[in-house]
Specification:
mainly alpha, two-stranded antiparallel ribbon, 10 helices, 2 strands, 62% helix
Length: 272
């Protein structure tokens, strides 16, 4: 067993002013997108300059935070809506924890679509550029979860197990680290390699949806289910349900965005 390296969630705490590690990870993730996305070959082709990237980051930040919070309440707190009805200020209390990646994704997509419409940029091309860099923020976010001691794994006896402050006396998987590597490092490597070759708009987004869903679905087997939900239908977690929906959406998007005539061309090749 490895001792859990306890760290204060706050980097700086001076009276009401508090800067938390988790918030810093969000900022670093957006900075990575700001610096890397405009330098991708596709960004230059569609006119996604650094100046436009500044405006896009603002849209994405608002959409992500609002979507992540509302997604958490919708997907993971649907049995506590009465409580939030009595305490409406808790709906916006993100500092108390509770953010959903899948809700954040929906919020970011809506905000990105609005930005592209106003800036007259191709939505799918812009989405491809952002998708390549998104895993950096995801990986950093998981490190923030680890520092906070939240979203820990299931009980285990592996040599690298840890006892988390809010996880009881049982050693658990450090699933946040697994996710930081899988959803961050591994996913970024896959998308970066795919982005090196010219591809139709929407291909990278499709790959992001599918591979994130696949990686997260697998890693959910090591993560403790949400306390108020537990397992669904015996063995599944809410995260796995949402990731399955992501993979299905990726398949539908691939078929929808597939270049016209691709299937007929393949048929001609097979019959030749």
């Amino acid at each position: 067993m490895i001792p859990y390296p306890e760290m204060r969630p706050e980097i700086i705490a001076i009276g009401p002013i508090r800067i938390r590690w988790y918030g810093l990870m969000y900022v670093l993730g957006f900075l990575a997108t700001y610096f890397l996305a405009p330098r991708l070959p596709k960004a230059k082709d569609i006119g996604l300059t650094s100046q436009r990237m500044q405006d896009l980051i603002l849209y994405l930040a608002v959409g992500l935070v609002v979507g992540a919070r509302l997604g958490f309440l919708l997907f993971y707190q649907y049995d506590n809506w009465a409580y939030y009805g009595r305490h409406p200020m808790e709906i916006i209390a993100t500092w108390h924890g509770g953010m959903s990646f899948h809700g954040g994704l929906i919020g970011a997509v809506c905000a990105g679509w609005l930005f592209c419409r106003r800036a007259r940029l191709p939505f799918w091309g812009v989405a491809d550029c952002v998708a390549v860099t998104a895993p950096i923020g995801l990986g950093l976010g998981r490190i923030g979860n680890f520092i906070n001691g939240e979203l820990f794994g299931r009980p285990t006896d592996v040599p690298w197990a840890m006892v988390f402050p809010d996880g009881g006396p049982m050693p658990r998987h450090p699933s946040q680290i697994y996710e930081a590597f899988g959803e961050g490092v591994l996913l970024f490597a896959i998308l970066w390699i795919l982005s090196r070759k010219e591809r139709p708009h929407g291909v990278i987004v499709t790959a992001f949806l599918f591979f994130y869903g696949f990686i997260r679905f697998f890693l959910e087997f090591f993560r403790e289910p949400d306390e108020n939900l537990g397992f669904l239908w015996g063995h599944w977690t809410m995260g796995q349900v949402l990731c399955t929906a992501m993979m299905v959406a990726a398949a539908i998007l691939y078929l929808w965005r597939r270049p016209k005539g691709a299937s007929s061309e393949n048929m001609r090749k097979r019959s030749a």
